[in-house]
């Protein structure tokens, strides 16, 4: 599967990973900051632009609302993308073995 969004940016990785559970944008931002130990802090515009892009590609989808906030979750295609990226990254990491 070759796609123009692959390889994923760090931001896209985090968004897809946190959306393995249904979340609205603000909760996703908070969870990403926590998961990244504060190294990835997304501006609302960046997050919503990425969410729009991922939704357009069918990798996430709206699954409901919490008041005015739209809740998103990863799709099966999005999970496939994460799997491909995980394999790619594991391969790269394996190249480091014995190189220290």
UniProtKB/TrEMBL annotation:
It comes from the Bacteria. It holds the Pfam family PadR. Coiled coil: none annotated. Residues 17-83 form the Transcription regulator PadR N-terminal domain. This is PadR family transcriptional regulator. It comes from Rossellomorea vietnamensis. The lineage of its organism: Bacteria, Bacillati, Bacillota, Bacilli, Bacillales.
